[in-house]
Amino acid sequence: MRSEKPVPKMASEASETISDVVFRQVRQDIISGVLAPGTRIKLEQAREHYSISVSSLREILSRLAMENLVLAEGQRGFEVSPASIKELEELADLRTVLETHAIGLSFAAGNLEWEGRIVAAHHKLAAAERKLLAGDASRTVDWVRYDWEFHQAIVSACNSATLMATLSSVFDRFLRYHMLAQSFRGQAVVDDHKLLFELALKRDVEGARAVIRRHVQSGVAHVLKSGRIG
């Protein structure tokens, strides 16, 4: 589950530095579970693995610490932030607050281009979900990316870069728990996305907010049911 970034939100490849690329790689490895919660990040080994200097790696890990994906332990170095039920529930609450607020702003300002983004994003997401429901687990990476793109499209007309960036970071941290659960949520999540798609095109703010609240809480229940979070 690590070949692609589920949430592409950095600059274009042409303007990226080596540090930008490695930042995305390390971040993806944490979110996807390749770097498991609580893993001590040994700088010399990580330097060789990611082909970057120790000083640049320290800077990258410090940036990830600001997102609470990494813990900085002074002279002891860095480790991947542990996973906990408390954090999962806090992230769920925060995501709900941010996304439902953004929905109100986006539905009020959305235009035809916004509707087009939603239609295109849902088309890709639904295609990946059909494959997953048919048992093709290889589409998990596609689903992870398309899931964010769909939710992003829904709120993309909110006209607040700060809100979008904060929601994106929280979404990623919440997503990490779903990756740790290592299972697709099935027909229920597909139905939620279809209903949210329909409500967005109708500009039904309260209906969409209700779906998001249920969608996020059912996600929490799914992760807890997996038994992989202590």
UniProtKB/TrEMBL annotation:
Write the record's keywords in alphabetical order, separated by commas. Answer: DNA-binding, Transcription, Transcription regulation
* Annotated organism of origin: Rhizobium viscosum
Record has DNA-binding as a keyword: yes
- UniProt name for this protein: DNA-binding GntR family transcriptional regulator
Report a single Gene Ontology molecular function: DNA binding
Residues covered by the HTH gntR-type domain: 16-83
Entry superkingdom: Bacteria
Tell me where the transmembrane regions lie: none
Q: Fetch the SUPFAM superfamilies from UniProt.
A: GntR ligand-binding domain-like (SSF48008), Winged helix' DNA-binding domain (SSF46785)
